[in-house]
Design brief:
The strands form two sheets. The chain has a five-stranded antiparallel sheet with strand order 5-6-2-8-9, with no helix packed on it. Strands 1-7-3-4 form a four-stranded antiparallel sheet, with no helix packed on it. The radius of gyration is 15 Å and the shape is globular. The two termini are 12 Å apart. The protein is mainly β and 136 residues long.
Length: 136
């Protein structure tokens, strides 16, 4: 469970059953009050095998993509080199130092799929809970 100031891995998973279209572009909206510094270096887009209570999530195969931080670092913009088909689970993976304050943080995903409309649509959300600091 993530704790303030500690480095934690983040796996923002988009499961195959939740994706109905190929993916041309993905934007992850980071909450403004999430006071942690993201950099593009540890960020990657990967094919994943989503875990559950009995199995860890594994994201070994990196998907070639251009990754940029925009909007003062509060939007992770990911443009894969080729459209990502909807038949596999993918994840945005990174490791950062958690914010100094505990709380719940909602990250939102917007995706652009192939088609006539060049607008990103809502794809899903992840809620990350950072446990308040205190004695361990």
């Amino acid at each position: 469970e993530p704790k303030p100031h500690r480095r934690s891995p983040y796996f923002l998973i988009l499961r195959q059953p939740d994706r109905h279209n190929a993916l041309l572009q993905l934007a992850v909206m980071v909450p403004r009050y999430f006071a942690a510094t993201l950099t593009t270096h540890p960020l990657r887009l990967s094919y994943c095998e989503a875990g559950d209570a009995m199995k860890r999530t594994v994201c070994n195969e990196t998907i070639p993509a251009a990754i940029d931080l925009i909007n003062d670092g509060k939007t992770i913009q990911i443009v894969p080199e080729a459209p990502i088909p909807p038949d596999r689970t993918i994840g945005v993976v990174f490791r950062i130092a958690n914010p100094s304050n505990g709380g719940m943080y909602q990250f939102n995903a917007l995706a652009q799929a192939p088609g006539k409309v060049d607008i990103a649509g809502y794809l899903g959300s992840w809620v990350i809970e950072i446990q308040p600091g205190g004695a361990n």
